[in-house]
Amino acid sequence: MLVEVAVAAAVRGTFTYRVPSSLAAEVALGQRVAVPFGRSRRATGYVVGFPAAPPEGFELRDVVEVLDRFPPFTPKLVELLRWAEEYYLVPPGELLRAALPPGLNARRGAPAPTRRGVEYAAPAADAAASLGALGRAAAQRAILEYLLARGRIPVEELRAAFPRGRPALSALAKRGLVTLETETPVATAGVLPASAAAPAALTAAQAAALAEIDAAAGTFQAFLLHGVTGSGKTEVYLQAIARARAAGRGALVLVPEIALTPQLSGRFRARFGDDVALLHSGLSDAERHAEWLRLRRGEARICVGVRSAIFAPVQDLAVLVVDEEHDGSFKQEDGPAYHARDLAVVRAKREDAVLILGSATPSLETLENARRGRYRKLDLPARIDDRPMPDVELVDLSKLRRAGVTGLPGLLSPRLCAALEDTLAAGQQAIVFLNRRGYETLVVCEVCGAEARCPDCSVSLTHHARRGVLMCHYCGRTEPMSARCAACGGVRFGVGVGTEQVEEAVRSLLPRARVARLDRDVVSSADDTAAVLARFARRDADVLVGTQMVTKGHDFPGVTLVGVVLADTALALPDFRAAERTFQLLTQVAGRAGRGAEAGRVIVQTFNPATPAVALAATHDYAAFAEGELERRRAFGYPPYGRMMAARVEGTEDGARRTAEALARAARPALAGEVAMLGPAPAAIERIRGKSRWHLLFRAPSPPSLFRVHAALARVAQRPPGGAAIRFDMDPYSML
User: Is Protein biosynthesis set as a keyword in this record (predicted)?
Assistant: First the structure.
């Protein structure tokens, strides 16, 4: 018996092995096996086929061991992964490895970990009333506050947040303020808990959308669910999935970053209970493995997860949802460069499932597919209960400067300051958004003009005042902030504004307000994020200042004001999607306002109020923005009117340049007059983590032309002349 094996290594192609008769009964398609590879006596491999005859001229080696009692991959998933391997130009074993949870993705032929019970902690029913009695027990109080915000959670998550907190947790249990219990997370498929949230009454538009989705059940059909913010897209997802479950079938829901959308996963758990498995990096390795195993065994039939959950082993898939389908988080930028939204289309087609792509601001690629009839477009044009869209007011910062209004603290204009004061005086909440972390984005010497720059990356260091450091946001390097220039001893000053400075300005303006901040500097895990959002949802904070983490999927009925400190942060980036991203981000953050009984308003500060991405976001006019942007894309042949492939090179300064030039020479004969080559050129950020970066970009009408160019480049990639690393990226999302 022969097997075709993809080895978990960055090597192209697959390899043929013999299966000893003692193992033949255990081997199946999608099985993990241990095989000898190169000089290694034991490497992880994945069975992807059964050759009828051995390749000529090779001496075959034997499979060493079958690593699992059942194949981790179903035949349909093997098909999907083989397709993705060819389309995204990645080594097959690396992609298969990336599709598995921790514990099953080892490289050296390790067996699967033993499944064990999970210890959970939960606050007692009356625990909140006892917070004041904890006195000076600061550690106990911190843990109890955390549990009150998070609810029942695995103790392993608590241990990550409070590494030395076990004694305090035990003390809380002795006081009767916390309950501890151990269980193996097993759910009975199809059994909903008695406390499951009841389905909401549908609007006419929601009912019409659901009727079309129901009519397509059992066949492949892709739908674009285009609904304004607050129009009830999630309820359509929930009811479509409920009908699939009633028919005994499964569902998969992809979200951009589940750590940022705890309300969404909470709604699914409330509706479907333990039938829902969660797959995201906020879980411990053991939890992710346990959740994956529940899906593979059919113990859970609904999966809610992030990008990598596109490979989740959901049984008998009937409905596949991609929420916020426009979001760039669905594109994998490190490792195998796949796009989960596009793979969702392929998977749904191969499994005869209904695909729902939901967004208030659909990507232009998805919109064009709907226009061409590939997807059916369903519209939710109004908010639930006919709540009005928020009024949006543009504040022209350049006009303020011309009028002599200078020194705006935290870049808060007088108009935004007055709106914040009015909002809090009315007992309502506000969100203030700026997509820049830190206190000041650049530190400069006033004498010699030297900038504080990262020695390993081609970027300036950001000043983080609270920690007193300068930080590189690309490699994480930090150094103490000094008031004096190391080169000449001159006084240094900071320019630019980050969320830390905005928070300081809001606290100064509203000294009695409870202000929270949400960015990567104050939260380091999904639990931290959930705790901040839970605090804001309970209205224990009046103002939430943050980066794009505050824009995604949150529903806070108390928020009536959203302030955008600077709308222009992404417009100047050297990226053809810059305007689209800006429009989407402004629309999404504006959509956080007015989702409750009170009307909402949005104040957007900008230096470019006439730019279509800003002006049309202010009027909620997606159709006009899309029309203009599509015309511009058509003129230049950018997606969706062309396809692109990037070759990204990293290495020494000389090695990266030589390798990029060699790739260009190899590509030119394959261009054949129909492929445009841009570059080779240094990347927009020329150096990261001490490595020089060069890019080549190829544009063509269709993928086959790009595959031909890749075949020419692959010969260079086997032995790059400068020793640099080469990564191919089909349908690249980031141009940086």
Answer: no
428-446: burial string, b at 16+ Cβ within 10 Å, e else: bbbbbbbbbbbbbbbbbbe
CATH superfamily name and code, 204-385: P-loop containing nucleotide triphosphate hydrolases (3.40.50.300)
Which three-class secondary structure string do you get for 542-599? CEEEECHHHCCCCCCCCEEEEEECCCCCCCCCCCCCHHHHHHHHHHHHHCCCCCCCCC
Q: Residues 57-78, buried b or exposed e (16+ Cβ, 10 A)? A: eeeeeebbebbbeebbbbeebb
Q: Provide the β-strand partners of residue 378.
A: 225
315 Cβ contact list (under 8 Å, min separation 6) = 250, 295, 298, 301
SS3 content of the chain, % helix, strand, coil (to 5): 35, 25, 40
Distance, CA of 39 to CA of 13 (rounded, Å): 18
Separation CA 11–CA 563 (nearest Å): 49
Give Cβ neighbours of residue 484 (< 8 Å, ≥ 6 apart).
Answer: 490, 491, 492
- In the predicted model, residues of the chain with pLDDT beneath 70 are 113-118, 183-197, 258-263, 524-527, 553
Reading the block at residue 656, the tokens are 């990266």
Nearest to 705 by CA among 684, 661, 675, 725: 675
Q: Rounded to whole angstroms, what are the CA distances from 114 to 176, 204, 286, 293?
A: 32, 50, 10, 11
Please state the residue numbers annotated as binding site for Zn(2+): 445, 448, 454, 457, 472, 475, 485, 488
Domain ranges of the chain: 2-98, 118-183, 204-385, 391-436+497-631, 643-730
Order of strands, sheet of 276-279, starting from the edge strand that comes earlier in the sequence: 276-279, 302-305, 250-254, 317-323, 354-359, 221-227, 376-380
Q: What is the pTM of this model?
A: 0.84
Q: Which CATH architecture has domain 391-436+497-631?
A: 3-Layer(aba) Sandwich (3.40)
- Concatenating the DSSP letter of every residue in 428-483 gives -EEEEE-S--SSBSEEEETTT--B-B-SSSSSBPEEETTTTEEE-TTT--EEE--S
CA proximity to 588, closest of 404, 324, 398, 350: 324
- N-terminal to C-terminal alpha carbon distance within the chain: 48
Question: Structure tokens of 379?
Answer: 């519209």
pLDDT of residue 189: 26
Q: Which residues are annotated as a binding site?
A: 445, 448, 454, 457, 472, 475, 485, 488
**What CATH fold (topology level) applies to the domain 2-98?**
GIY-YIG endonuclease (3.40.1440)
The structure tokens 């490792």 sit at 335
Pick the CATH number of 643-730 from 3.40.50.2300, 3.30.70.360, 3.90.550.10, 1.20.1730.10: 3.30.70.360
Contact call for residues 447 and 490 (beta carbons, < 8 A): yes
Residue corresponding to tokens 């349908």: 731
Query: In terms of residues, how long is the chain?
Result: 736
Tokens of 711: 């075949």
Q: How far apart are CA 523 and CA 167, in angstroms?
A: 24
CB burial of 630-640 (b: ≥16 within 10 Å; e: otherwise) equals beebeeeebbb
**Which residues, in sequence order, are CB contacts of 114 under 8 Å at separation 6+?**
none
Output the six-digit token pair for 228.
């304004």
244 phi, psi to nearest 5 deg: -65, -40
Considering only CA atoms, which of 577, 591, 586, 589 is closest in space to residue 614? 586
Q: Annotate 576-601 with b (16+ C-beta within 10 A) or e (fewer).
A: ebebbbbbbbbbbbbbbbbbbebebb
Strands (E), 30-189: 32-37, 40-49, 65-66, 118-123, 153-154, 178-183
| Same CATH fold assignment for domains 204-385 and 391-436+497-631 | yes
Nearest Cα to Cα of residue 68 among 102, 27, 97, 96 = 27
Residue 653 DSSP code: H
